[in-house]
Amino acid sequence: MAITPEANATSPGSKPSLPKESRASRMWLWNTIIGLVLLAIISIIPLFNDPAMLHTWTLIVMFCVLAQGWNFIGGFVGYAAFGNVVFFGLGSYAVGIMLNSGKPFWLGLLVALVIAVLFAFLVGLPILRLRGHYFAIATLGVAVAVGELVAARDIGGSGGLLSVHPPTLAELPLFFYGFVGLSAITLVGTAVLSRSKFGYALVAIRENEQAAEAMGIASYWYKVAAFMLSAAPTAIAGGLYAYWATGFDPTTVFDVSYSVEMVLLAFLGGAGTILGPLLGGIAFEYMSYQFSVSGFTLHNSLLGLSIIIVTIFLPQGFIRLVQEVMRPTSLAGADDSYWLRIREGLRRVQRFIASNGV
Amino acid sequence: MDYGQIIVNWLLLGGFYAAVAVGFSLIWGIMNIVNLAQGALIIVGAYVAYVAFTKFHIDPFIGIIVSMAVLFIIGWVIQYVAINRVIRAPFLVTFMLTFGLDLLIIDLVQLFFTTDLRSINTSYGGAGLQLGPTRIPYDRVGILLVAVLLTWGLNEFLSRTRTGNAILATGMDRDAARLMGVNIARIYALTFAIGAALAGAAGAMLAQVYPFAPSDANTYTLDAFVIVVLGGLGTPWAALAGGMLFALAETVLPLIPGVGPGYENVIAFGVLVLVLIVRPTGLLGKAFYA
Taking the model in full, what pTM does it have? Predict the structure, then answer.
């Protein structure tokens, strides 16, 4: 893997000088502000009074939240969780069942949150002892098994089909604002996390788990905590979705492709960054939507092809490419001409793209 | 209850599952790639056999060879053009890349063959040997034999030929293998091509016994996943063992009183998670693919 900013800051080869370091350390603030401004711009969408547009953007922001939730375990700790959809599904069913038994919506969301975080804790205890692919498959297995169990036990309704009393039309923008607010909270939470001792511990586990252990980080408990953290926004998003969609079954809310999509979005933007999952989510989901409404029969091919091209040319996400290009050059000095900087930038882009070849 | 029939069904289904998983296991074991496009390749194999049968009247058992040849070429191209470029990236990158391939392949298959369910109906399709109450269909026995033959053949190829040894060496230590004069890019292309060819064989078998449509692809990817974990990544035989185990879960567990149908997947994936926790390397697995 090529140089990550964290690794670079401490590598003995680089010569950190004070002003440059302070620029790098303000990066998190800029990332957060850019993200919040972006969400603020998106939040004017209900003013257009276009139900179709509102529907699309509600889903787009929902996927952003899912990617942001995945980012805690997948991006910071670097554990490829492929079953995070299970928290979404649990959240949906918790809210659906609560609503159908006449309880208020907010209580449903609270129950969804508690159940999903508790589930993450209980499941995390055994499966976070696994690593790499095995962890990925175990999470996938848990998600599929829970989804199938809900269907087989007829939870919520026959075959798990659950419908709730639909919200009124005037309430629909509230769900949109709910998702935007959830995304903003998660964004700020990610920013705070990335500056905290806890966040640094998670990154240390990602970079080298043995070394992190040797430094006195109880990596197992940090991983469990990160897994619980990633369950929280996912479950609330599931709860919001349950009321918004008014009807769902296990094949929709435990859909494995949701899991894959979370990873994809976080990954396209840049896993383990503050802004990455949000940017990746907005860009990819909007593009995907445009492909599907274009009426072009091959929209899945275009989607697949764009994933292939992006993974080959941006294997560490968009944000990391920008960071790599913006990194202060080591050529800085007397001869720091504009032309040299551009050449250095191009060289870095080339190296970035080719870094993973045979 | 007819125990003979249950055992026959189990063995015949297990053979098919082994064929589904053996290529997936090879690609994963050697290159550390979880090939999400494996199901799509299996479906392509099924359509190749289908076209060979309906257009050129080639018997599906010979169609297995045709399908393997076509998929071998497709696999080689995929690895050489795309996956080799990101092979050193964290495994998530190849995961995403194969997911993109999966979308692309399924969509293209849908474009050419529509989403209709297809199947191959041979003249001997319904024929079978009747042993008392137990019926043994000939075509499925053929599939079991071909699956075992392919597993054995892959094992022999890997352990006895120079190229096979180069594949194993690359799987154990890429850089050391390169220093020994192995052309890594070509070995990886060959490995993926063999994996794809095995998917083609599984597809041609699938076409004979089940109806199929492009949207089925992901089911087979997921099945391959579970089978490989159950068996472990050690050798081609591990895939066979995993296939048998998965088939056992699917045929026998619903017969247990009080369980009933509908719980097959719950049990299969529950067992999967348990196996992972208790013995992460699978039943016959070793640390390396060797």
Answer: 0.81
